[in-house]
């Protein structure tokens, strides 16, 4: 028999199998439903954040004459911009603050995470398109591959086929191609619908890479299913064992590794707050009395060659507040970088779960390609902080240069506040994010090779048993 | 006969390495879930430590000034004449100054069974500092209670409730898929039937044995958790145990029903796993997405902008400020400045309180509007609980454990009310030309969390699980015997 005949036979058997066709139809319907339901799910939230951002900026620009430091205390809010593929892969962002209040003297954490105000947010499940494609699609691919791979073993007709001269290699390849084609057919309608709904070159590029990686992931699982079907098809617990292993690898082991990562590299807000507060006490305080204030004042007086702060040509209070900002900024940088390093170490530990199945690595890839990972949130937080430092620094320096010490009533010229640009964090392109994708992409390739290896082993076993 | 079948099944299981591997895995996972959950409980309790320290330090400054004034060592600064030069010493007697410095903390105590279930406690702030400054600058709605790894936060904490909800049913699918199919496919069903046991008895015995083993592990883990947090003898512990039992019974009955359908081993296994995926992965998310109302985030996202708008409008010019003052005096303060004593009309501080009052009204109404949308969402989820029994069960168990969003909403509502009391204490003192002496300072009201009467526990998940367990179990046992 030639390869085409094997393929034709497998295709016919698949088409005639109502269970297989039903599985493909169910998968297709689930994916379309997941895409459609997610398409408008965040629209109101996204619009609300955008409207609020525009409004806050307009009001900042139009604020009445006000002492700059008072303006810095009133502060401004910045809102996290939407991500390129938010509708299909919101990633970790719903669980992270979307709004940051920027004010003088302190760096506030982002607040108002969308999930925090949704009474019931299912975290183990979720119905968004990409996670659904990876989790439910991956599971059904595995089952589909298993059912196709185990067909002869379940029906106990393998010896008959062997007797008719069927070889393992073309048979397994034909089964793998058939399973892969069925998975492709199931996923294609939703992928095509999604493609036409996504706007922007970068988003489309990301979607293209995500689609290819998702299909690779589904093929890997279908291939593993075919190989496992060959090995375990005749055993009574075969499918259950495969399903249980899948459940463990996708849902349970990653959670266990999460717990382990937090235990191995612990970090609490209290720890961070304590070290930051301790360091703050050592530095200048714009509204308090510290030894550092005295040292700063002495230095400034010496620099300008005067003996009293009233004789300074600049506003001492504003200079002190800026010194306070710069010192505290350095403290935040050191300790938040340490916290970020702990987070990265935890994430590294979490990669252990990638060894138990391809889906955790694919979920990581999906979140990263969609720009909805922890690094995106970190960038938003960092951009907001850079914006805050620039804003408060400009306000303090303007006050220092144009008013005298003790003059808290001084207000800048008309239109001064309108001279500040709106918060506009850089949007990383796909190229910028490529290096972050490498670990999960490498693991996916490893699983692809494993899947190929498993299929090779299964056809050798088929041929070996034939020879025996 | 049932006893004999149970003994036989236990004997068969005890000889299976796969069974012991499964039990070992379940026990390890239960231990890990307990460690993870109890670690979170500990972190939650200590999350407010830094805030408590802030309160202590802020108030120590005022105590030192009171003490210094008695001894004559300290002379507070007159806020009305302070020109910004020289050291500023706050005068705790001045209500306006005390409004800035006198600090309290509002804390939501850990729920009775926090540690066994996490609920939404990771996602919302569980304490707020309270001063007589705008609420918008104090309340951090939607700020995480603690620092948690972002991807772990998004995935969900593996606590005991997650273990019971996800892993126990998965173990049951493995244990029950061949409840009767094995005998049927092995061709020994007629032989077994001839010896006496019916399919009903076999199913019942297998369900009792295998469901009982999983239930025993879930209850044992729960008991250890309850003893650990010192809640073993509380009523909520009883309801927790009832909930766990009902849920495991529901899954046992459901899987016995699948087992009784007459499918082969592969068919039963495929259906079991599909049911697990459909009920635990698909249905909760679909139900939540479909029932979610709009307006959950929007009022809160816009609240801060609204607050800034009112401040801008009020401070636009003197006329705007005067109009705002009149409006606030009439609507909220119930004071007529024309007839009030001169000292009540303290021009240097009242503009601040006009702004604050207006911003507080706007902010608190936005927070309450968001909360009412959340309550609507809860009501919808309760009404349609039968669409997703695991979702209903989770909501019930979180309610029993005291980690549900309704409890946090009640806390936020009490914080808003307490802040208003704290702020009004200052304005009342200003208008009555009173000052805060040491006694008034020390007797200032502290925040006390009150479990609201209206916060009834959500029983729908438990009731649904019990009804389904009996309903499905009855149907499974009354099906036409296939092996007799």
Question: How does this structure look, described?
Answer:
The complex is a heterodimer of chains A (468) and B (484). By secondary structure, chain A is mostly helical. Chain A has one domain (3-467). Chain A is built from 16 helices and 2 strands. Chain A has a two-stranded antiparallel ribbon with strand order 1-2. In chain A, helix 5 runs antiparallel to helix 14 (358-369), helix 10 (238-264) runs antiparallel to helix 13 (316-350) and helix 13 packs antiparallel against helix 15. The longest helix of chain A has 38 residues, at 430-467. The radius of gyration of chain A is 30 Å and the shape is elongated. The longest helix of chain B is centred in the last third of the chain and has 34 residues, at 350-383. The model of chain B has no long low-confidence stretch (mean pLDDT 84). Chain B is elongated. In chain B, helix 10 packs antiparallel against helix 15 (389-401). Chain B is mainly alpha-helical. Chain B starts with a helix and ends in a 6-residue tail after the last helix. A two-stranded antiparallel ribbon of chain B has the order 1-2. Helices cover 66% and strands 2% of the residues of chain B. The chains are: A mainly alpha (468), B mainly alpha (484). At the A-B interface, helix 2, helix 3, helix 5, helix 10 and helix 11 of A face helix 2, helix 3, helix 5, helix 6 and helix 11 of B.
Features:
heterodimer; A: 468 residues; mainly alpha; two-stranded antiparallel sheet; B: 484 residues; 18 helices; 2 strands; 66% helix
Helix content of chain A: 55-70%
| Biggest pleated-sheet summary of chain A | 2 strands, antiparallel
Proportion in helices of chain B: 55-70%
The SSE order of chain B reads HHHHEEHHHHHHHHHHHHHH
- Uncertain ranges of chain A: none
Number of helices of chain B: 18
Mean pLDDT, all residues of chain A? 87
Which two chains touch over the largest interface?
A-B, 103 and 96 residues
User: Roughly what fraction of the amino acids of chain A lie in strands?
Assistant: under 5%
* Structural class label of chain A: mainly alpha
Gross morphology of chain B: elongated
Strand order of the largest sheet of chain B: 1-2
Query: How would you state the average pLDDT of chain B, rounded?
Result: 84
Shape call of chain A: elongated
Largest sheet of chain B: 2 strands, antiparallel
């Amino acid at each position: 028999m030639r390869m085409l005949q094997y393929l034709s036979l497998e295709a016919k058997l698949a088409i005639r199998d109502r269970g297989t066709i039903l599985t493909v139809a169910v998968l297709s319907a689930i994916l379309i439903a997941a895409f459609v339901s997610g398409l408008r799910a965040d629209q109101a939230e996204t619009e609300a954040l955008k409207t609020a951002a525009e409004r806050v900026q307009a009001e900042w620009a139009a604020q009445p004459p006000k002492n700059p430091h008072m303006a810095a205390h009133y502060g401004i809010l910045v809102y996290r911009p939407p991500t390129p593929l938010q509708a299909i892969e919101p990633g970790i962002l719903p669980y992270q603050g979307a709004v940051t209040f920027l004010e003088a003297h302190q760096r506030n954490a982002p607040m108002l995470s969308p999930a925090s105000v949704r009474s019931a947010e299912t975290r183990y499940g979720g119905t968004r398109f990409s996670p659904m494609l990876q989790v439910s699609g991956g599971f059904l691919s595995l089952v589909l591959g298993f059912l196709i791979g185990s067909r002869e073993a379940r029906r106990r007709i393998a010896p008959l086929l062997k007797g008719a001269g069927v070889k393992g290699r073309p048979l397994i390849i034909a089964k793998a191609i058939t399973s892969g084609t069925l998975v492709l057919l199931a996923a294609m309608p939703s992928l095509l619908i999604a493609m036409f709904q996504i706007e922007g070159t970068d988003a489309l590029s990301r979607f293209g890479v995500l689609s290819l990686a998702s299909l690779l992931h589904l093929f890997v699982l279908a291939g593993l299913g075919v190989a496992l079907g060959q090995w375990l098809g005749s055993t009574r617990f075969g499918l259950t064992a495969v399903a249980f292993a899948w459940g463990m690898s996708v849902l349970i082991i990653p959670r266990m590794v999460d717990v382990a990562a937090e235990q191995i590299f612990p970090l609490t807000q209290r720890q961070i707050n304590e070290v930051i507060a301790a360091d703050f006490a050592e530095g200048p305080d714009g509204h308090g009395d510290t030894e550092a204030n005295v040292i700063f004042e002495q230095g400034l007086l010496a620099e300008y060659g005067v003996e009293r702060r009233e004789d300074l040509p600049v506003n001492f209070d504003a200079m002190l507040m800026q010194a306070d900002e710069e010192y505290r900024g350095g403290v935040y940088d050191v300790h938040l970088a340490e916290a970020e390093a702990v987070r990265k170490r935890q994430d590294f530990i979490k990669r252990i779960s990638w060894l138990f199945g391809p889906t955790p690595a694919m979920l990581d890839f999906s979140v990263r390609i969609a720009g909805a990972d922890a690094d995106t949130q970190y960038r938003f937080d960092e951009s907001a902080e850079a914006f805050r430092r620039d804003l408060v620094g400009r306000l303090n320096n303007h006050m220092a240069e144009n008013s005298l010490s003790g003059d808290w009533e001084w207000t800048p010229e008309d239109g001064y506040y309108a001279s500040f640009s709106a918060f506009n964090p850089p949007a990383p392109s796909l190229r910028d994010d490529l290096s972050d994708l490498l670990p999960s992409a490498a693991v996916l390739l490893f699983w692809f090779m494993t899947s190929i290896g498993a299929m090779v082993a299964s056809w050798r076993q088929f041929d070996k048993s034939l020879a025996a | 006969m049932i006893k004999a079948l149970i003994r036989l099944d236990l004997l068969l299981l005890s000889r299976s390495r796969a069974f012991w591997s499964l039990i070992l895995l379940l026990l390890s996972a239960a231990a890990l879930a307990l460690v993870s959950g109890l670690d979170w409980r500990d972190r939650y309790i200590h999350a407010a430590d830094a805030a408590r320290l802030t309160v202590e330090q802020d108030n120590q400054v005022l105590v030192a000034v009171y003490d210094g004034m008695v001894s004559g060592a300290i002379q507070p600064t007159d806020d009305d004449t302070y020109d910004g030069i020289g050291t500023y010493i706050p005068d705790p007697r001045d209500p306006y100054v005390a409004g800035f410095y006198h600090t309290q903390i509002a804390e939501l105590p850990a729920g009775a069974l926090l540690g066994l279930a996490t609920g939404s406690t990771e996602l919302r702030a569980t304490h707020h500092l309270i001063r007589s400054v705008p609420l918008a600058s104090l309340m951090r709605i939607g700020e995480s209670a603690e620092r948690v790894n972002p991807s772990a936060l998004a995935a969900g904490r593996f606590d005991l409730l997650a273990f019971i909800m996800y892993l126990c049913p998965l173990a049951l699918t493995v244990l029950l898929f061949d409840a009767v199919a094995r005998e049927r496919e092995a061709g020994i069903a007629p032989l077994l039937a001839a010896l006496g046991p019916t399919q009903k008895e076999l199913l019942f015995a297998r369900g009792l044995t295998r469901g009982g083993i999983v239930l025993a592990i879930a209850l044992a883990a729960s008991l250890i958790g309850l003893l650990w947090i010192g809640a073993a003898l509380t009523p909520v512990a009883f309801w927790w145990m009832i909930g766990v039992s009902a849920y495991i019974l529901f899954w046992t009955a459901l899987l016995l029903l699948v087992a009784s359908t007459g499918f082969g081993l592969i068919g039963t296994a495929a259906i079991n796993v599909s049911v697990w995926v459909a009920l635990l992965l698909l249905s909760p998310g679909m139900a939540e997405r479909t029932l979610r109302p709009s307006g959950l985030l929007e009022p809160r996202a816009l609240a801060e902008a609204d607050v800034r708008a009112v401040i801008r409008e009020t401070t636009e010019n003197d006329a705007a400020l005067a109009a705002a003052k009149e409006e606030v005096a009439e609507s909220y303060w119930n004071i007529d400045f024309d007839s009030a004593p001169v000292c009540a009309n303290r021009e240097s501080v009242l503009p601040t309180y006009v702004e604050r009052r207006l911003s507080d009204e706007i902010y608190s109404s936005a927070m309450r509007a968001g909360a009412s949308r959340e309550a609507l969402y809860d009501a919808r989820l309760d009404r349609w609980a039968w669409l997703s029994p695991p979702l209903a069960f989770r909501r019930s168990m979180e309610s029993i454990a005291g980690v549900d969003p309704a409890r946090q909403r009640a806390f936020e509502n009490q914080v808003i009310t307490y802040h208003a009391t704290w702020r009004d204490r200052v304005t009342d003192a200003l208008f009555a030309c009173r000052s805060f002496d040491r006694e008034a300072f020390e007797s200032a009201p502290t925040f006390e969390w009150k479990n609201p009467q209206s916060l009834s526990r959500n029983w729908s998940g438990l009731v649904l699980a019990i009804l389904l367990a009996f309903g499905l179990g009855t149907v499974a046992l009354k099906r036409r015997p296939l092996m007799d």
